Amino acid sequence: MALRRVLALAAALGRRSCCSKPSLPPDFVEALRAVVGAPNVSTATAVREQHGHDESMHPCAPPDVVVWPQAVEQVQELAALCHRSRVPMVPFGTGTGLEGGVNAVQGGVCFDLSRMDAIAELSLEDFSVAVEPGVTRKALNKHLRGTGLWFPVGTVGERGSWGWE
C-alpha cells in the first residue's frame, strides 16, 4: 500500500522513477559524432551491452550510446554537450570494477576512455608518473622497465585502468 502511494506521488510530481530511461534528444548522436568522429561513436546493441556491466553481480544496464574520446578537449566538449542536453554520462575504463559503477541505469552516454592511453610525464626523482585514464598497469610497467621502478600489484588489476573501471 505504501509503495502505491509513493508511486502515485512521484507520478503526480512528474518525476521519473529510478528505472525510467528518457530518450536522447533529436540529433544528439550526430552531435557526438561531430566531436569525436563517426568511427568513435556506437549505438550497436552488442557494444552497448559490453559497456553496460562490469565484474559485479549487478545486471547489465547498457547506455544509449558509447563514445571513445581520445583527448581531454574531446571529453570536455562531450561533457558540456551532455550537460546542456541533461543526458547522463558514465565513464568506462576496462569494465573490471566490482561495484556496478559502469551500469547506465538512466541510459545516457558511456565514455570509453581506453583510447586515452598516453603516459604523459615520468619523474624518476620523485617517483611520480602522470597517465591518461586508459593506461593499464601492464602498459605502465612496460614503460617503466629499465628505470628500476615498477607499479606493483594493488587495487588496479592486470586489465584495470587508472580512470574508471
Question: What's the SSE blueprint?
Answer:
Layout: H1 2-13, H2 28-36, E1 41-42, H3 45-50, E2 65-67, H4 72-85, E3 89-92, E4 109-112, E5 119-123, E6 128-131, H5 137-144
Parallel strand pairs: 2-4, 3-4
Antiparallel strand pairs: 1-2, 5-6
Number of E-state strands: 6
Q: Measured on Cα atoms, how large is the radius of gyration?
A: 19 Å
Helix/strand order = HHEHEHEEEEH
Strand content: 5-15%
Strand order, biggest sheet? 1-2-4-3
Q: Low-confidence spans: pLDDT under 50, at least 5 residues? A: 12-18
What do these coordinates show?
The chain has a four-stranded mixed beta sheet. The protein has a two-stranded antiparallel ribbon with strand order 5-6. The protein has helices at 2-13, 28-36, 45-50, 72-85, 137-144, and strands at residues 41-42, 65-67, 89-92, 109-112, 119-123, 128-131. Helix 2 packs antiparallel against helix 4 (72-85). The chain has five helices and six strands, in the order ααβαβαββββα. It is of the alpha/beta class and 165 residues long. The termini are far apart.
List key phrases describing it.
two-stranded antiparallel sheet, alpha/beta, globular, 30% helix, 165 residues, single chain, four-stranded mixed β-sheet, 6 strands
